[in-house]
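--- STAGE predict ---
source: upstream dedup step, 1 unique chain passed
mode: sequence only
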Amino acid sequence: MRREIPPTSMRLPEELKLWLQHKAVDNRRTLTSEVIARLEESRKQEEEFEKAA
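--- STAGE serialize ---
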């Protein structure tokens, strides 16, 4: 089941965008899915860190 996610416009440095695109291919994801997965992982780590503090 796909979630409907409203579009978000974002500017990225070209080098970072290219790196993310390569990582997305490596992980068999779209660029959007790669960004979401990385942000969710970052949020999870931050929440765990805050709980431990």
